[in-house]
Amino acid sequence: MKKEARELLFVVRGLTSMTDRQLKALSHLLEVDILEAVQVAARLARNNQGRKRQEALIAALLRTRVSEGVLDKLEEAVRVAESSSNPYEDADVSGRMDVWREGLLENDQEIMEEVLRRGQAAGIEAQQLRQLVRQYQQATRELEQALQAAGSSSGESAATAEAGASSSSGSSDEDAEVAALLAARASPKIEPDVSKQRSALRSAARALNKVLKKLAETMVSEATSA
């Protein structure tokens, strides 16, 4: 019991030490009032008795309202925050995004129906979501064509770029994420058409990733809270 209390205190103190950006990455795991309680504690000095009472309140909320699966994720996020300023990347969220994005790129109707269904539940119009998918597919094809026309010496393809997107899609910093996945590889010179299509794919990927991340976070939240 004492061990469990220590572990919970470790999570609470870790949460109250996080930056706003790091906390935002956990918003799909914590209810709004718990996040607000964490933010209140974070604004108080560490030796303030009010902070200690607030931390006790947070511990009670976590103990009674958060599942063991979520607590495990929170503990992992705290350990990440201890050694890095980067936000926690939920592997379940990024993994689900990878599956959806690959399926959408390949016109997998089962994946499309799942994404549309979840989008509808989240208040996202089917027409809007279909348009984002079409823009992403078109941008990928056009980059592939531009690379082939340019005879790129880097050996990069749109598929390679898309695979790069999958590897880092869980990041909460979307600009950095998309910039990394579409960065030029070995070729020091980029043809104008290739550069233009890179920019188009960057924009399309960012827009689609934003929606897919929201849906994936909801899905993971439901699964871990069950």
- Cα-based radius of gyration, to the nearest Å: 21 Å
Q: Supply the helix-strand structural class.
A: mainly alpha
- The N- to C-terminal Cα distance equals 23 Å
Structure annotation, total helices: 11
Give a quick summary of the entry.
By secondary structure, this protein is mostly helical. It contains eleven helices and no strands.
What would your notes on this structure say?
The chain has 226 residues and is mainly alpha-helical. It has 11 helices and no strands. Helices cover 75% and strands 0% of the residues. It starts with a helix and ends with a helix.
List the keywords.
single chain, mainly alpha, 75% helix
Topology:
Elements: H1 2-16, H2 20-24, H3 32-42, H4 49-65, H5 68-83, H6 91-105, H7 109-121, H8 126-150, H9 158-168, H10 174-181, H11 192-225
Helix pairs in contact: 1-4, 1-5, 3-4, 6-7, 6-9, 6-11, 8-11, 9-10, 10-11
